[in-house]
Design brief:
229 residues; mainly beta; eight-stranded mixed sheet; five-stranded antiparallel sheet; globular
Length: 229
């Protein structure tokens, strides 16, 4: 699964990577402990340009009676995303990229569960495949939400958790945003997770367990972890 992640690059680097516009004036700053239910930076395309915006993490289908259902729809499995009523239309028409430079999982050790941060070996930005929806409240206000796709873990990542977010290959990012690609089989051909050999696992600080902690200290192993790894 994917339940916490980081994006620590500058605003200028983020826009440059995606050749994106920030037409909505989205507030942005480095984040070290992004959690479900929060507004997260996302890249969408209108067919002619990429745009940066904010989506609430936890997808709420248009037909939902209560937006709280989003708390149960943080991730969408690649094995079933094309079939589930909550996700299938978004997979066809409303896909986005969630920028990140690391994500957290908890590894079981003799001393209990410890947070680990998974990142690219070169520390570079990457894109998690995601889908989004727009939900209209009774008062007419709109809530835009998203879910991150996950796949079975392989290699050394499977020793930490049985699921991983779908981190797209760089050359697949533009196609993932291309609304002209709508056949589920064609879309899912793009949802191939990055080779785990390109990812490394670093011990993180147990402060990650508290969502109110969102600072560089989350990346620094505490003393006990430093002795174990």
């Amino acid at each position: 699964m994917c339940g916490r992640y980081t994006i620590t690059i500058s605003f200028e680097e983020l826009l440059a990577y995606y050749s994106a516009d920030d037409a909505a004036g989205s507030p942005y700053g480095p984040r070290y402990n992004i959690a479900p239910g929060q507004l997260v930076p996302a890249i969408v395309s209108d067919g002619s340009r990429n745009r940066l915006g904010l989506l609430k993490w936890g997808l709420v289908p248009p037909w939902a009676e209560d937006p709280k259902v989003g708390g149960k729809m943080l991730n969408a499995r690649v094995e079933t995303v094309a079939e589930r009523p909550a996700f299938r239309e978004a997979l066809r028409r409303r896909r986005c990229l969630i920028p990140a430079d690391g994500y957290y999982e908890w590894r079981q050790t003799a001393g209990g569960k410890r947070p680990m941060r998974i990142r690219r070996k070169d520390g570079a930005l990457f894109s998690m495949a995601a889908i989004y929806e727009s939900w209209t409240a009774p008062d007419g206000s709109r809530l835009r939400t998203c879910a991150i796709l996950t796949a079975p873990a392989k290699g050394h990542l499977a020793d930490i958790h049985d699921r991983v977010p779908v981190i797209l290959n760089r050359r697949s990012e533009a196609a993932w945003l291309d609304r002209r690609i709508q056949r589920p089989d064609e879309v899912l051909q793009l949802a191939i997770p990055l080779d785990p050999a390109e990812l490394v696992v670093d011990p993180a600080n147990r402060r990650v367990g508290n969502v109110t902690n969102d600072d560089p200290g989350c990346l620094v192993p505490d003393e006990e972890q430093g002795e174990l790894f």
